[in-house]
Structures are given as structure tokens and as C-alpha cells.
Amino acid sequence: MKRRAFLGVGSKTLAIALAPCATRSGLLFDQQQSQVLPHALEQRIAAVIQAYDSQGNHRTGTEVDNASAEWLAEQVRQLGAEPSLEPFTLDRLDPQSCCLHVEGRRIDGVPVFDGGFTNAEGVRGRLGPLGSEAEIGLAESEPYKLAEPGIEHRSQVSEARRSRHKAVVVLTRGARPGLFLMNASAFRKPFGPPMLQISSVESNWLNQQAQSHTKATLVAQVRRTTAQAFNVTVKIAGSNATLAPLVLMAPRSAWWQCVSEQGSRLVCWLEAIRVMATGKPARDCYFVALSGHELDLLGMDAYIKRRPDLIRRAHAWIFFGSDIGAPRQPNLIHASDEALEQWTVVAMAKEGLTVNGTARRDSMARGEAGAVQQGGGRFVTVACGSELYHSVADRWPEALDVAALTRYAKAFANGALEIAQQSV
């Protein structure tokens, strides 16, 4: 089966991909075995991405996520720096029976992780349009847009959370048909009815059933397990401890293999560590690779709680955004001030990269950078568009342009070193 065929996944693929210990070890692709990458950095990046992809589903607090933390720490050691694993606890949700039964069909899905859940019997009743009197409502999420972080949670999904339906089916929309999961931005304070995310390939048929108010059963059963997850942290000491430190951060957990969404960030993060470890920075440089990204940014909260003064104390926060180097996709930068915006433009230009768009400085910062923005810190982030955002098809090698990702990694590593070497 070709990788892109996973967009219309069935129940067996979903069960395997969502299992907390779903791994594929030693996976090599013929395409990459026969490809000779021209530069050493491209080879390193390809090797890291391929290893990250082979680990499995990087969902927070799973065996895969925790083993991936150990793997990432070893990557740091090989670059000449000393990592630390900082734990935090969570109630991990492991999907059990999660499906919609309608008209003799079983359609598997993934529960919304910050909504309600059902028992094994599920919710029974009529399937109907959102806002109708039907017991089970049918809604659609918005496709991911680079310039509008979190848009998939708005409109119908937001309405569904406040609805009187006993349960809701969410048809997930993306750049192409398929299953595109939503992050659980209210994971610590879940609300709303049980909601089951289902691939948009079922859209036409389910809308027909909803118009007919067909009887259905929705099951969104999960098991809760107290678990531990880890942030990977690194400090590279500068020569002048009185200077405000530089912080570079990258999320490392998410749905599925997420090689473009998170793997691209991690290779930029690792390249910055490599450059900084031998670059003799003047200011201290802090690095953090965060778990808990898809679950209300749990890892960022844990990181800041250990360092409550760091948001304002830091000279700047460099946040590696999602899907850096995704093929044929525009980029967007968001900086808290003119100086950091211009630094980004210059750093990228040195590697032949053009800035395609800039976010308004007062617009909502994406991901973990939002905590820095809300705390009054300086930040800059770069992200790229994606056709595979939160999709099971976000896989190596199709999801990334290694040559483009290499240019981004060099640009931000060398640019960060310039900031770290400044004596004021």
C-alpha cells in the first residue's frame, strides 16, 4: 500500500497507530537507500528524520514518546552537549472502542481528547445535522491554515461543544480527504459531549444519513492511565553569565509519526545545539524539546513552572514552528518586535530562503510561543504550510523536502549563534 493511501484509513490501521506502543523498528525505504545525499548535513538530517519516523506514534506519555526522549537525549550527547530529562505527570488517554455504527456499518474514528467520553455501550439515537433535535449531531472541522493557528477548533466544532447533542461526529477536513486530528487545547479542563473524529472520506454518505435521521450508535471509550512524560532540556553555558539567556524550543510529541510537523523542528533544534556547542557563545543558551504539545501544551507549562522568571529574563525565545521544509509550501514568520523579525529575514536570506509572509505582531502566537507572548517575553517563530497537518500520512520520506529543511536548519543555527555571541 502506498503511504498516501493511509489517508482513508480503516479500523485496523487506526487501532495500530493509536496504540501507546505502536512501533516499527529498523524501517528503511528503497527510495532512500538508492538516494545519495550531496552534503553531510543533509545526510544527518535524513538519518534523524528516518529514525524519528520509525519510532511510531509520538503521542504524549506513551512508551514511544518516552523512548523517543531517550533517543533524542543520545542525539544531543553525540553533539557534545549534556541533556536532562525533566518529567511531568499526566492522565494519559488510550482509545479503546471508538467508532460509529450506522446502517450496518462500523466506521472507526478517534475521540476528541478534551471532550466527553462514553462507556462501551456508547450513545444511541438519531444522527442529524448539527443543531437539530437528533441525539447525535454531525459537524465538520475547518482545514488547517498556516496564517490562522487553531482554526480547526472554531465554527462548527465550537458550536458542537456547546450543543445539546448527547454525542457529536466530527468530520475532519484537511487539504485532501482524510483524518486530520485536532489538538486537545482544553485537555486539563475538558468540556462538551463525547465527540468522535472521522475521516472526511465519509462526508457525503454520513451527511445523507444525517438528513434521513438514521439511527446510530457512537462509542468513544477510553482508558485513563497515570503516566509520565519528559521534556528534553540542554544548557550550553556562555562566557558571560550576566547576559540574558537565549532559549530555543521545539515540540516533539503529537499525533501519529508527525515527521513534518515535529521531526522538522527537532532537526533544526539539534543543528542549533551542534553549532552552539562549538561556537563559544557569550550568553547562556537553553534548549528544550517539549512533550505534551497536542495535550494543552502540558510540557511547556511544566518547563515554565521550573523557571518562572525565564519568560521575561530571556533575551529572546526562538520557537521552531511546524512543518519546516514541507514540500512546495510557503513559510510564515511571527516576531514580537522589529529587531527579531529583521534578524529572521537576514538569517534566512543567507541560505537563499525568502520570507513568504509575516504575522501581525499582536496576533495570537502559535503553540508554545503563546505562553511567551502572554508572559511579555520576546519571541520569534517560523512555520510552513502543510497538506498533512495532523494526518497519519505525515511520514518519511514523502512529507519533507530534505534540501529545503537543511537550509532552514543552517539559517537558524547560524543566526542563533550570532545572537548568542552578542555581548550586549
Molecular structure report:
With 424 residues, the protein is α/β, with parallel strands linked by helices. The chain has 2 domains: 13-91 and 227-420, Zn peptidases (Aminopeptidase, 3-Layer(aba) Sandwich); 93-224, Glucose Oxidase, domain 1, CATH 3.50.30.30. It is 30% helix and 23% strand. It has helices at 11-18, 30-33, 40-55, 63-78, 156-161, 203-211, 259-278, 298-306, 310-313, 338-349, 369-374, 402-420, and strands spanning 83-102, 105-108, 110-111, 123-129, 136-140, 167-172, 195-199, 215-236, 246-251, 285-290, 316-320, 331-335, 379-384. Helix 3 packs across helix 7 (259-278). The radius of gyration is 22 Å and the shape is elongated. The protein starts with 10 loop residues before the first helix and ends with a helix. Mean pLDDT is 91; it is low at 1-37.
H and E string: HHHHEEEEEHEEHEEHEHHEEHHEH
CATH architectural name of the largest domain: 3-Layer(aba) Sandwich
* Proportion of residues in extended strands: 15-25%
Which fold name is given in CATH as the topology of the largest domain? Aminopeptidase
CATH superfamily of the largest domain: Zn peptidases
Number of structural domains: 2
Helix count equals 12
Rg result: 22 Å
In the predicted model, the low-confidence regions spanning at least 5 consecutive residues are: 1-37
Strand segment count: 13
Overall residue-averaged pLDDT value: 91
* N-to-C span: 56 Å
CATH class of the largest domain: Alpha Beta
